[in-house]
Structure formats: C-alpha cells, structure tokens
Design brief:
The protein is α/β, with parallel strands linked by helices. It has 2 domains: about 5-220, Spore Coat Polysaccharide Biosynthesis Protein SpsA, Chain A (Alpha-Beta Complex), CATH 3.90.550.10; about 230-440, UDP N-Acetylglucosamine Acyltransferase, domain 1, CATH 2.160.10.10. It has 9 helices and 40 strands.
Length: about 450
C-alpha cells in the first residue's frame, strides 16, 4: 500500500516566545522538524510534504530541497493545513499519515505498528493515542459501549466524565486517502477559534460506521515540544539517546552528563570522549581517539588514533595519529596530515600541514602550505593579511622556522631552509637557505 506523509510545521509556536518558527528550534544540533522528516523517509515516503506558514522561507532554507513544501498562509487549524496539501496529493491512493514538526521522538517502529494496525483493521482512520501521567489539555478518546471510538473531546468542550478519561489523542493520524479528501470539505470552523480541526473527521467517520482503529504509544514519544522548558527536556532526552547509542557501539563516554554530541555526529569504537566536550554538526571521529576534556568540534573530521585535548576544531580535518592541544584552535580549512603535532596556543586557518610537521606552541599559520616534517618554532606567524587581501605562505619539506619568525606573505621557504630566531622574512628563501635578521637576509657562507 502506498504511503503519503504530511508534516505540519506552519505554526509560530507562541509559547516559545521566539521570533523563529517553533520547528526550527534545535535539539541536539538539528531543527526539531528534521527528526520528523527523517522518520517519514524511513517509512518509505521519498518526498514527504511539509506544510509551512510562519517563517516559511526560514524553514525552507533550513530543510533544503529533500521534501515538498505546501504553504498555509493563514494558520486556521490542522484540518485547514491538510486541505492545502490536496493538490500536491491528487491521484495518490493508499494511506495518508499526518505527523507534526514539533514531535521529534516518535519512532519508526511505533509508526510502522500504527500503519500495520491501519492495514490489518482495514480502518478508515487510525489514531495514535497515549496515556500521560497528567492528561492536561489533550483531547480525550471517547469510546462507546462496544469500545469503538466515537469522537475526540477537546479539553475545552469535554464533560467532567470525559475529562476523567486517561487515553488521549497524540495528533498523529493515518487516513484512507480515498475517504479523506472528500470528507475534508465537510469540516467547519468551530471550537470558538474559527479553526478547522482534523480530529473532527473522527466523529464523521463514526457517524458513517467506518472502522476507527487505535494504537497506543509511550507518552515520551508523542509529547510535543511547545515551550522552552519542553525544549530543554527534549535536549536532555535526545542527548541520552545519542550517548546510549554511541556507548553501545563501543565509544567510551567518561561522563555522559557533561558530554554534548549532535545527532549527526559519527564516532568510531574504542574512542574515548572526556567530560566537557561538545561535538557538533556532521563531525566524524575515527577509532582509538581521545577527545577532550573540554574540547569543541564543529563539523570536523578526525582520523584514527588522534588526540584532541582542550582545543577547538571548526570545519577542519585531521588524518590519523595527529595530536592537538591543549588550547589549540583549528579554524575552517585547516588540514593536518598524519603524525602532525599541534601544541598549546597554536592556531591554524585554511592551511595544510604536511605529515610529521610540528608546531608545539604559540604560533599562527594562516593560508599556509607546509611540506613534510617542518618544524615551526614558538611565536611564528604567517603574516597573511596586508589589510586588503590574504596571501599564501609555502614552506618546503624539512624546513626549520626559528622562534618568533614573521613570514610576510606572499613568501616561499624552500626545502630544508632555516630562519633565525626573530627573523622577518619578506623574500623567498631557496632550498637549504639560511636567513636571519630584520629584514631577513642570507647568513654568510662559512
């Protein structure tokens, strides 16, 4: 049976007290709507529909082109939102599953069970229900004497007897497509808000004696994230899931409670993550690494057998057997080949350091290309910016750069060349050359 999924993501989320659309608030480094999209894709819908409204352009920019978008310019309720998708789903048969952009924890397994129930019951509508410890303002699932669902009683309209019902509506529903589309036209704005409620279709189906099935889910899976308190709860829940998954895959987290890892990160077995470490974005870390304590990695790539201690890596790459830190900073475009050693207070930006090169302390390498086994003395700076443009520095294999050398780019230091301590190098140095002084000049021949 074919499946079409609709993800409702048009609301502002006023209880967030934010200028941004609710579904763009992040959980473990990702917009919360991204989790619903991943779930829809895993269920087999190659291009789910996302209904956008408030901040639609921001949502499109954050999500990208992997989904279909439908605009709900006026937010007139869930029924109205689904109405807007009719043209996009014309001719589609099978089932229509309605999800929510602010419900990131519902699992693929739970939804597959819902779809199985829908198919096996030959249901017109199948509801995903749950039983929270406090039903709060959720709509109650009202059943008749035979146990069949008759309607959903909204909190504001429920009788005291109905408010005592513990089974409530999650908002996630599955419809038979050929029944849904004509019956959407029967919805009327009501409930005191002038909104069209998708749940009113349940009463219509019951009146027609159609089969209405239910499947129960755990409360934590289907709870929506609608304020900052719930957002903080969701962050904790997602972190626990991510950390557990990593630990079960062979990663050691010394203190999971103080380790922050994004949902998109990948970490190899036998790697140890120390406390206070933040690993964000699409960071990739290999096997047998030691990361932290107190390191920050943002969309970085780290090979096997690397050590990163108390340092920051941003959109940078380490090959295998690289050591970084403490207190080093690798900025965008830094690339360290095998066996490079980068020590305390060393900064690298848009530069490639050849295999076996070392910069142990207090240096800045910007827009530089280093060969193999280059030694960078303490205090060395590539002066890459002249106030208008950036310029490159090239350093050949086995070169030795003395402490406090200033390499004024553009400049090229040859293989096996040396600069004296405090040299200000403004001209190219040939292979095996030795320069010193301010400005640097060749050393006299012996």
């Amino acid at each position: 049976m074919s499946l079409s999924t609709i993800i409702l993501a048009a609301g502002q989320g006023t209880r967030m007290k934010s200028d941004f659309p609710k579904v763009l608030h992040t959980i473990a480094g990702r917009p919360m709507v991204a989790y619903a999209i991943d779930t829809a894709l895993a269920l087999g819908d190659p291009r789910p529909i996302v209904v956008v409204g408030y901040g639609a352009d921001l949502v499109r920019a954050a999500i990208g082109d992997g989904v279909r978008y439908v605009d709900q310019t006026e937010q007139l309720g869930t029924g109205h939102a689904v109405m807007q998708t009719r043209a996009a789903l014309t001719g589609k048969t099978g089932s229509v599953l309605v999800l929510y952009g602010d419900t990131p924890f519902v699992t693929v397994e739970t939804l597959r069970a819902l779809l199985d129930t829908h198919a096996q019951s030959d249901a017109t509508i199948t509801l995903l229900t749950f039983r929270p410890s406090d039903p709060l303002r959720y709509g109650r699932i009202v059943r008749g004497g035979s146990g069949h669902v008759t309607h959903i009683a909204e909190y504001s309209e429920a009788t005291p007897e109905q408010l005592a019902i513990r089974e409530v509506n999650s908002g996630i529903l599955c419809f038979r497509a050929d029944w849904l589309w004509p019956h959407l036209d029967q919805l009327r704005p009501q409930h005191g808000h002038g909104e069209y409620y998708l749940t009113d279709l349940v009463a219509l189906a019951a009146a027609e004696r159609k089969t209405i099935a239910t499947r129960e889910a755990a409360a934590d899976e289907v709870t929506g994230i609608d304020d900052r308190s719930r957002l903080a709860w969701a962050e904790r829940q997602m972190r626990e899931r991510i950390n557990e998954r990593l630990m079960l895959s062979g990663v050691t987290l010394i203190d999971p409670a103080t380790t922050y890892i994004s949902a998109e990160a990948e970490i190899g077995p036998d790697t140890t993550i120390f406390p206070g470490t933040h690993i964000w974005g699409q960071t990739r870390i290999g096997q047998h690494c030691r990361i932290g304590p107190h390191s920050i990695l943002r969309s970085a790539t780290v090979g096997d057998h690397c050590t990163v201690e108390a340092s920051v890596l941003e959109q940078s790459t380490l090959e295998s057997h690289v050591t970084v830190g403490p207190f080093a900073h690798l900025r965008k475009g830094a690339y360290l080949e095998q066996h490079v050693e980068l020590g305390n207070f060393a900064e690298v930006k848009n530069s490639r350091l050849g295999a076996g090169s070392k910069s142990h302390h207090f240096s800045y390498l910007g827009d530089a290309t280093l060969g193999r086994k280059v030694n960078i003395g303490a205090g060395t700076i590539t002066c890459n910016y002249d106030g208008v443009a950036k310029h490159p520095t090239h350093i050949g294999d086995d070169a030795f750069i003395g402490s406090d050398s200033m390499l004024v780019a553009p400049v090229r230091i040859g293989a096996r060349a040396k600069t004296g301590a405090g040299a200000v190098v403004t001209r190219d140095v040939p292979d095996d050359g030795v320069v010193y002084g301010v400005p640097a000049r060749p050393a006299p021949m012996k």
